[in-house]
Design a protein that fits this description.
The complex is a heterodimer of chains A (217) and B (200).
Chain A (H helix, E strand, L loop, with lengths): L8 H9 L4 H13 L1 H20 L7 H10 L20 H7 L10 E4 L2 E5 L9 E7 L8 E2 L4 E7 L1 E4 L2 E4 L3 E3 L9 E2 L5 E7 L4 E2 L2 H10 L2
Antiparallel strand pairs in A: 1-2, 2-3, 3-10, 4-11, 5-8, 5-10, 6-7, 6-9
Chain B lengths: L1 H33 L2 H21 L4 H18 L10 H17 L22 H6 L3 H11 L2 H11 L5 H8 L3 H22 L1
Helix pairs in contact in B: 1-2, 1-6, 2-3, 3-4, 6-9, 7-9, 8-9
The chains are: A alpha+beta (217), B mainly alpha (200).
């Protein structure tokens, strides 16, 4: 997999800091799982977290907490990460965990407009953003839209083109709130993306805006 | 002024930090190899107070903070054998464990527990043995970068890493456009990266 479009380093920093919204974090972690250079950037950003923790002035911990913790060692077992789910396709680990190993054909798609289907994914109540899979038919153009908020899109299958170039599997569009674009899916296969939005995406044209409540993004 | 600060840092903090890291790595190794409780107690006494401050700064009550400190330290005991020094300092490893456990606590019902995803973003074998050697002292480069980052960038970073606020909340708090907050984050990262590359 050749990756040409990467995460904004500001996103990688926020992710490493643990202060990126949950929905955006899932897309970020999924790209990082696929992309060695963003993985290294993320590791580097986490080093800052270690350094900052090292600089913090400590707060006294109660003797109760200390003795309880030491007591708990007697019953603590060694940690084992869950076995890697058997992959039906090359989906990144964090997304696989969310889909419980289901393939993109097995999730329940809801058609919202001709050639456009969505599948909402669960996030906790603490999340501000929405997380969903989006499937756009081959050759189809998305209405031109700005974001009006944070949006990160990871391409899982197929490809689209817009003013920034070609986005194919593994590429991420981390565009920020002011960017307006009009992606057109390539012929031959639908494009499936994992999308997180922190505020409703705003379509530019009047007709597309009318459609927005139905599309639900 | 900056050069003077750098020199002071170089002399004291960096050496201290490096020595501390070596000691901490030894303690983690002791736990991994022998389930050594004395090593654990020393590790607890070194990190627990800082972890407690970290949790409180992130908005936890003192009780919840101690709860999370306990959970983090038990995790360190259980995961000691999985710690890979090539991926970062002992401090960084413990930071990632604490960060993920805290997030999991907030997202109680989340179907993606971060603590089960691994303590780094992905288990990877990206690094060869040459890189491992080069990374022994990289935490010092990080300390240097952090000391050298301009104050307005450091402010943004501290808000993101220490307080639990998003980039748009940082923008609101500092009365800055979101784009400015993001570009400060990018510049700070670029400074860090340069520092790490110069070293390697």
């Amino acid at each position: 997999m050749t990756i040409n479009h990467h995460l904004d380093t500001a996103t990688i920093m926020a992710h490493a800091a643990g202060s990126l919204d949950e929905a955006l974090s899932v897309v970020t972690a999924s790209h990082i799982a696929l992309c060695a250079s963003c993985r290294e950037a993320s590791r580097q950003a986490s080093l800052l977290g270690g350094e900052i923790l090292g600089e913090l002035e400590g707060t006294a911990v109660s003797s109760n907490c200390r003795s309880q913790t030491l007591c708990m060692l007697d019953t603590a077992t060694l940690h084992h990460y869950p076995k890697k789910l058997k992959l039906k396709n090359a989906l990144p680990g964090p997304l696989n965990l969310l889909l419980e190993g289901k393939s993109l054909d097995e999730v329940s798609w809801t058609s919202k407009a001709p050639g456009l289907a969505f599948c909402g994914l669960p996030v906790s109540a603490a999340a501000r953003g929405k997380l969903f899979l989006m499937r756009i038919a081959a050759g189809k153009a998305m209405p031109e839209h700005g974001h009006g908020g944070e949006e990160i899109t990871l391409i899982l299958k197929g490809a689209y083109n817009d003013s920034l170039g070609r986005f194919a599997a593994g590429d991420v569009a981390d565009l920020g709130e002011d960017f307006e674009h009009k992606p057109v899916v390539e012929e031959g296969a639908p494009c499936i993306c994992l999308v997180a939005t922190e505020a409703p995406t705003r379509f530019k044209s009047w007709s597309a805006r009318l459609l927005q409540p139905f599309i639900g993004i | 002024m900056r050069a003077a600060a750098w020199n002071m840092l170089k002399k004291d903090t960096l050496t201290d930090r490096f020595n501390e890291d070596q000691v901490m790595k030894g303690l983690i190794q002791g736990i991994a190899d022998n389930r050594d409780r004395t090593c654990f107690a020393k590790l607890f006494d070194t990190f627990a107070p800082r972890l407690k401050s970290f949790m409180i700064r992130k908005g936890a009550s003192p009780e919840l903070a101690e709860d999370l400190v306990q959970e983090t330290m038990i995790s360190v005991w259980r995961k000691a054998g999985l710690y890979d020094p090539a991926k970062g300092s002992a401090l960084t490893w413990i930071f990632t464990i604490a960060r993920n456990l805290r997030i999991d606590r907030i997202r109680k019902e989340s179907s993606m527990p971060l603590s089960e995803l691994g303590d780094y973003d992905a288990p990877s074998d990206d690094l060869g043995s040459d890189d491992r050697l080069a990374q022994r002292q990289e935490q010092q480069q990080v300390a240097m970068a952090l000391a050298d980052i301009p104050v307005e960038q450091k402010q943004v970073i501290m808000l993101a890493f220490v307080e639990d606020i998003s980039q748009s909340e940082i923008a609101e708090r500092l009365k800055l456009p979101l784009g400015t907050v993001k570009s400060r984050m990018r510049l700070a990262y670029a400074r860090l990266r340069k520092s790490l590359e110069t070293y390697n």
